[in-house]
Design goal:
The structure is a single chain. Helix 1 packs across helix 3 and helix 14 runs antiparallel to helix 18. By secondary structure, this protein is an alpha/beta fold. About 35% of the residues lie in helices and about 15% in strands. Strand 25, helix 27 and strand 26 form a beta-alpha-beta unit. The strands form six sheets. An eight-stranded parallel β-sheet has the order 1-8-2-7-6-3-5-4, sandwiched between helices. A six-stranded parallel β-sheet has the order 9-14-13-10-12-11, with helices on both faces. It has a six-stranded mixed β-sheet with strand order 17-18-26-25-21-22, with helices on both faces. It has four domains: about 230 residues, Rossmann fold (3-Layer(aba) Sandwich), CATH 3.40.50.300; about 180 residues, Rossmann fold (3-Layer(aba) Sandwich); about 60 residues, Arc Repressor Mutant, subunit A, CATH 1.10.10.10; about 200 residues, Rossmann fold (3-Layer(aba) Sandwich).
């Protein structure tokens, strides 16, 4: 049963039992460090539900309202009454760090068990056994860890005084940041002793998500109290500025970021965009840093502290800097590219203006946004054929490593690991020492549920497009976001660019535009060679393993750009179109499983049909600039191209153009054998290698020409995805007598 506590009827502190009210207020003041602090409307109602009634409560409140105060105050009160420690399920390492620090301010002993502190696990276990821990923070993925599940979880469940699920929208399939392991929480709640209070908190949930989460919290007929307040943020001034190109957007940012209040965050949708934007802003004289999942934990902490201490104007970040980052005086949030839904956008802009009167929020949407959103629509859903292949292989009842499973399902590792998590949540497999094992339970592909989620995500994308309309076509920005989260108090804010007119400059200074163009037009990225054969290739008929022999390796190569890059990356995505791969956009998401794999990256297919055309002069000049800047140990002596069935004019045209520019002989193409490469691009390394093995060869005429060449061979292709085509082609050239092979591609996928 669901009981909703509207904000107008939330109990004031005096309505909590007298002694509890005094204690609660004392703890709140210790937590905040303010002797005059009082409970915000609704905080006390949630504390009362947990401490006095041992209830289950769902708190849906805007960012900065103080949801953490509810569970820390409740924890302190319950511990003083002899209850066991609080188990807090939290989605991010950065969020855990902030929560541990906040607890310490109130004298609450909080510790985390995560991949970042493995050396401390034994000490933490001893402290738990000695009842020396008030709050234990874990990620949802930790609930699947065999050691934690077997050694720690049963004891915690039996004696914990409170269970807290932070960012609880992730529990729902409809939540904007879906994490498969969050679905385990319903099972966890079913094992709790009767009367154990449970708190779920979130700032980003519409009515559908609220109902779904409340239903899961109340499984078995347990009453759930929902405390929900208005989501309007009076401190935020929202705006949308539509500019015609990447150059214009970056030029605008370089020109005006210094005018934005205080320090803030510039969000991008991809890792490459974050790094490029940070470089351009630094070149323009701004003190900024890039913040992505590629940073190690120490560098992340240092970057976060630099922003908190206002030592940088901004962090240029992917969504890796999201839930849980706490800087109350954050002055602005700018998005270069729109998130896929108003819900996720509200969550990110909520970082700003929490303890300042005014903060600026600006969205600079880009034409590539929709292509990137395609990943969000399907990222949490397994493919039926992949699931069937995995479950068929695991029917032997043995433990399978992820590397071994890559030889039975043609899916990249990040998606394979996600598939295993989904199957584990559904009870079909379990994580054990040495990998994963089938449970023997039947599993049926839930096509209806996945179709339902897909439709919901597509609707969210359409809503985001509506939010990003120009000023003269849009409605109040804040009211739009409130309505998207089903806030009945939505009303015009009077501050955004729709209500009060644009508050930001709309022009792009010519000098800044020229500088941005120069930076974006600078082609050339390194193409690293493969050094190891993929594990399990022999199971697919390719008899290789271990290191690639030095006599068969490629040298380090070059490409014009990554498809994820701004500037040339955008142009190459349009040129290469849909070849079965399309563009691949590397995303940097704190989901799913980021606590286990903080560098997870996923692919977004960009489907376009284009005809094969020769390279234009602009592209050839860019290729020439890459060659001119290439610091090779020995200049190439000849050019060879990889045969293309989709774009023969483009690939051979680039190879011949480089031959002319470098005054190098063009020796022609390699040959296709056995019908040429097979399979679909985009899968894992073992399958990609098997698809090209013995299918790209050096023909007799090319072999004869190679015999007349002394020096490295420049090997040309259009797109380097898995790099196994280049690796096999280069190996064949080396075996045919080439002293060295320098790979060159128009584009890298990541």
């Amino acid at each position: 049963m669901l009981t909703v506590v509207p904000m107008s009827t939330a109990a004031p502190p005096s309505e909590i039992a007298g002694s509890v009210a005094a204690e609660a207020l004392e703890i709140l003041r210790e937590l905040t460090g303010r002797p005059d602090a009082v409970f915000r409307e609704g905080q006390d109602a949630a504390v009362a539900a947990l401490v006095e009634r041992s209830a289950r409560a769902l708190v849906v409140q805007r960012t900065g309202w103080g949801k953490s105060a509810v569970y820390f105050v409740s924890t302190a009160l319950l511990r003083r009454r002899g209850a066991g420690p609080t188990l807090l399920v939290s989605p991010l390492l950065a969020l855990m760090r902030d929560q541990v620090a906040a607890a310490a301010r109130a004298g609450i002993r909080a510790v985390e068990i995560s991949s970042a502190n493995m050396t401390e696990w034994d000490d933490i276990a001893a402290r738990l056994a000695a009842d020396d821990v008030d709050v234990l923070l874990v990620s949802p993925e930790r609930l699947t860890n065999p050691r934690f599940r077997e050694e720690q979880l049963p004891g915690l469940v039996a004696r914990c005084g409170l269970v807290v699920v932070d960012e609880a929208h992730c529990v729902s399939d409809w939540g904007h940041d879906f994490r498969p392991d969050y679905r385990r929480i319903r099972d966890l709640l079913g094992t709790l002793p009767a009367g154990t209070p449970v708190l779920a908190t979130t700032a980003t949930a519409n009515e559908r998500v609220v109902d779904d989460v409340a239903e899961q919290l109340g499984a078995g007929g347990v009453e759930v109290t929902t405390v929900r307040g208005p989501l309007s943020r009076d401190s935020l001034r929202l705006g949308v500025l539509r500019l015609p190109s990447d150059r214009a957007r970056l030029a605008w940012l370089a020109s005006y970021i210094g005018d934005l209040p205080g320090s803030g965050i510039v969000y991008t949708l991809t890792v490459a965009a974050a790094e490029e934007t940070a470089n351009l802003l630094r070149d323009a004289g701004h003190e900024v840093r890039a913040y992505t999942g590629r940073l190690d934990d120490a560098d992340r902490k240092d970057a976060e502290e630099a922003l908190r201490e206002n030592r940088v104007k901004a962090l240029v970040a992917t969504s890796a800097l999201g839930m849980g980052f706490d800087k109350p005086d954050l002055g602005f949030v700018v998005h270069l590219g729109a998130p896929s839904s108003p819900v996720s956008y509200y969550q990110q802009v909520g970082r700003a203006g929490r303890a300042v009167e005014h903060a600026d929020v600006l969205l600079l949407p880009g034409p590539e946004d929709i292509a990137i959103w395609q990943w969000f629509a399907t990222s949490s859903m397994p493919r039926e054929d992949h699931a069937a292949a995995v479950l068929t292989a695991m029917a032997d009842g043995k433990a399978w490593s992820v590397a071994r499973l890559e030889t039975v399902a043609d899916v990249r590792r990040s998606r394979l690991e996600l598939l295993l998590k989904v199957l584990a949540v559904d009870g079909a497999v379990e994580r054990v020492q040495g990998g994963w094992r089938s449970t023997g339970r039947p599993w049926v592909y839930d096509a209806d549920r996945y179709a339902r989620v897909t439709r919901t995500r597509e609707a969210e994308q359409r809503a985001m497009l509506s939010y990003a309309k120009p000023v003269d076509e849009a409605e109040c920005r804040m009211a739009f976001l409130q309505s998207a989260l089903d806030d009945p108090t939505a009303a015009p804010c009077g501050r955004c660019d729709v209500c009060a007119g644009p508050w930001y400059a709309t022009d792009v200074p010519e000098a800044a535009a020229e500088k941005a163009s120069a930076a974006l037009d600078r082609p050339g990225v390194e193409l690293s060679p493969r050094a190891m054969w993929p594990t399990g290739a022999d199971r697919l008929g390719v008899d290789v393993k271990g290191k690639i022999a030095p006599s068969e390796q490629l040298a380090t190569g070059r490409a014009v750009a990554r498809l994820t890059d701004l500037g040339w990356g955008q142009r190459l995505r349009s040129l290469l179109g849909d070849d079965g791969i399309g563009g691949v956009v590397e995303l940097d998401l704190e989901a799913p499983g980021i606590e286990e794999d903080p560098d997870a990256a996923f692919e977004v297919p960009v489907r376009r049909s284009v005809s094969d055309v020769p390279p234009d002069e602009e592209l050839l000049r860019a290729c020439g600039r890459v060659l001119a800047a290439w610091d090779w140990a020995e200049r190439p002596a000849a050019v060879v191209s990889i045969p293309s069935r989709r774009r023969p004019q483009l690939v051979s045209g680039v190879a011949q153009g480089l031959s002319r520019m470098g005054r190098l002989p063009y020796l022609g193409e390699l040959s296709l054998a056995h019908g040429g490469p097979t399979g679909q691009p985009g899968g894992n390394s073992a399958f990609r290698l098997a698809a090209v093995w013995d299918r790209i060869v050096v023909g007799p005429e090319l072999r004869d020409r190679l015999a007349e060449v002394t020096g490295p061979v420049l090997l040309v292709d259009d797109l380097a995805d898995s790099r196994w085509t280049m690796t096999v082609a280069g190996r064949e050239l080396r075996r045919a007598g080439a002293s060295s092979v320098l790979p060159f591609a128009l584009a890298l996928t990541a």
